[in-house]
Specification:
Elements (H helix, E strand, L loop, with lengths): L7 E5 L4 H12 L3 E6 L2 H15 L3 E5 L7 H12 L3 E6 L14 H29 L2 E6 L12 H21 L3 E7 L7 H5 L5 H4 L5 H13 L4 E3 L2 H10 L4 H16 L1
Parallel strand pairs: 1-2, 1-4, 2-3, 4-5, 5-6, 6-7
Helix pairs in contact: 1-2, 1-8, 3-4, 4-5
């Protein structure tokens, strides 16, 4: 199949971690890939690798999604190039760990811009186009943190709860022609702890999965038309158990274990 006849997939946060593995997995499934992240040189390196290994086309977009209206500008540039993604992977996000009142206001604002506003704008502009031509898939990367209160990651967990709720609602609105799936990973070896400053409790570190495994789980679920998927058997058990635990009790227990992990 000629490159120009392959479908396009757009992956945000594609320069490292889960986003990089999602881009690799989509290229292996014969999609051309739009690679979006802040670090342009890493994207260029990945672009060359994917084109060489899989014979697909790539487009590199070095974009800071924390900048207002960056998502809308990105979509317009792609339209000008004739690139119409039929798969949107809303993966870009970051977290801030520690006590909420000690966190930096500007960093919190930037996190909300990336985790919530940019994700919402991307879903809106690309979802509108997918709906207009009657096909497409969207994968929203939330977190197991979306399912309950997350002391010491309070705003991050709240942002992921937004992602889960938005994804579930859009699935109903856009069905049946455009599918929406929410992927909820737990801990992964992606450098999240180093960036966020959050040290996970020992019990949580035992659930850690490789990003490549999580990418496969998410894409398999999306193409199978599933509403949502929690990555990993142990994570699924923990999320299920949490549904039977009062949220106030969950918050107190998680706070105690998070504080203990940094003592």
């Amino acid at each position: 199949m000629a490159q120009q006849h392959k479908q396009w997939a757009l992956v945000t946060g594609a320069s490292s971690g889960l986003g990089l593995e999602l881009a690799r997995a989509l290229a292996a499934r014969n999609f051309n890939v739009v690679l979006v992240a802040r670090r342009g040189q890493l994207l260029l390196n990945l672009s060359a690798q994917l084109e060489r290994q899989h014979g697909i086309a790539t487009t590199v977009e070095a974009v800071d999604l924390a900048a207002p209206n960056s998502s809308i500008a990105l979509q317009r540039r792609l339209v000008d190039r004739g690139v119409e993604p039929t798969v949107l992977v809303n993966n870009a996000a970051f977290g801030i760990g520690g006590r909420f009142v000690n966190q930096d206001t500007a960093q919190l604002r930037a996190m909300v811009q990336v985790n919530i506003v940019a994700l919402m704008e991307l879903a809106h502009v690309f979802g509108e186009r997918m709906a207009s031509y009657g096909r497409g898939h969207m994968l929203f990367v939330a977190s197991t943190a979306a399912n309950g209160p997350t002391p010491m990651l309070a705003a991050y967990g709240a942002s992921k709860a937004f992602v889960l709720s938005l994804g579930e609602a859009l699935r109903a609105e856009l069905a049946p022609k455009v599918g929406v799936t929410v992927l909820m990973p737990g801990l992964m070896d992606t450098g999240f702890a180093g960036v966020s400053g959050y040290r996970a409790p020992d019990w949580a570190r035992s659930t850690m999965l490789a990003p490549a495994s999580v990418a496969k789980i998410g894409l398999d679920a999306m193409f199978a038309g599933k509403s949502s998927i929690v990555a990993g058997h142990l994570n699924r058990l923990l999320v299920s158990a949490g549904r039977f635990t009062p949220r106030e009790l969950q918050a107190r227990m998680l706070f105690r274990s998070a504080v203990k992990s940094v003592e």
